[in-house]
Amino acid sequence: QQQVKQSPQSLIVQKGGISIINCAYENTAFDYFPWYQQFPGKGPALLIAIRPDVSEKKEGRFTISFNKSAKQFSLHIMDSQPGDSATYFCAAISLGGSARQLTFGSGTQLTVLP
Amino acid sequence: DAGVIQSPRHEVTEMGQEVTLRCKPISGHDYLFWYRQTMMRGLELLIYFNNNVPIDDSGMPEDRFSAKMPNASFSTLKIQPSEPRDSAVYFCASSPAGRFNSPLHFGNGTRLTVT
User: Fold this and answer.
1) Do B59 and B47 meet the contact criterion of CB atoms below 8 Å apart?
2) Best mutation site among B43, B46, B49 for testing chain A: the one with the most A CBs within 10 Å?
3) Which of A32, A45, A60, B44 measures 20 to 30 Å from A92, CA to CA?
4) A110 — pLDDT class (breaks 50, 70, 90)
C-alpha cells in the first residue's frame, strides 16, 4: 500500500500559535519524508525533510517529528505567522526503490489569523 | 535560474477540443514529472520521464492523455478530446539525477477549465 494519510484537511490558527499537521504511512520501505508548501497560484516547494534515522529535525520555526514504530510523522510550525498561510503536503519515498516518484498526502490548508 | 516554466497559465476550452500544455524544465535536470491537482484527489502523478524517456505513465487517466518529451528542455501534455472532468491545475516538475532525495522543483501550473 503506497498511501500517505494526512490530517487535518484544514487548520485555522491564531498568530503566534502552534500549527500541527499529521501524516501516517503504511509502506515500511519509505525512508525519506519531505514536506512541501504551496501558496495560492504557485507550485509546491520543498519546505523541510527528514530521514527515519532521526526522531526530529528543526529548521527555524518548522520542526518535523518522526515516530518510526507508529509509522507517523508530523510538521509543527511554531509562532505561526499569517505569511505561513498555505497548503502543506507531506510526502514519502523509498530511496532504495526503483520508483522515482513521491507519494503525496492529500494536503492541509493552513490559515493563520492576524 | 528561471525555474520550471509552464505555459499557458490559464486555458479555457470547450469540451471536445484538443488541449496542449507546455513545460520547460530547469536546465540540467534529468527527471520531469507531470502532476494534476484537484480538490477531490489532491496531487496525482500522471507520468514521469528520465532523460526524455517515459518511465511510468500508469497515472495517465485515459488514452485521451498523452505526453511527450522530444528533448531535454521541452515537454508537452496533450488532452484530446478534452472533457469537463479534466478541469484541474496541471503542474510540471523537474529534479536532478543521482540522489532520490533531490527536491522536486515545480512550475506555477496551468489552470485548465473545460466547459
Assistant:
1) yes
2) B43
3) A60
4) very high
Strand ranges across the sheet with A62-67: A4-7, A19-25, A72-77, A62-67, A56-59
CB contact (8 A) between residue B101 and residue A89:
no
Residue A2: exposure state from Cβ atoms within 10 A (0-12, 13-18, ≥19): middle
State the pLDDT at residue B1: 62
* pLDDT tens, residue by residue, A52-98: 888 999 999 999 999 999 999 999 999 999 999 999 999 998 876 66
Q: Do B104 and A46 touch (CB under 8 A)?
A: yes
Contact B55 A106 (CB under 8 A): no
**Residue A56, C-alpha cell as written in the block:** 526530529
Helix or strand (DSSP H, E) at A50: strand A45-50
pLDDT value at residue A113: 97
The pLDDT tens digits of the residues spanning B6-57 come to 999 999 999 999 999 999 999 999 999 999 999 888 899 999 999 999 999 9
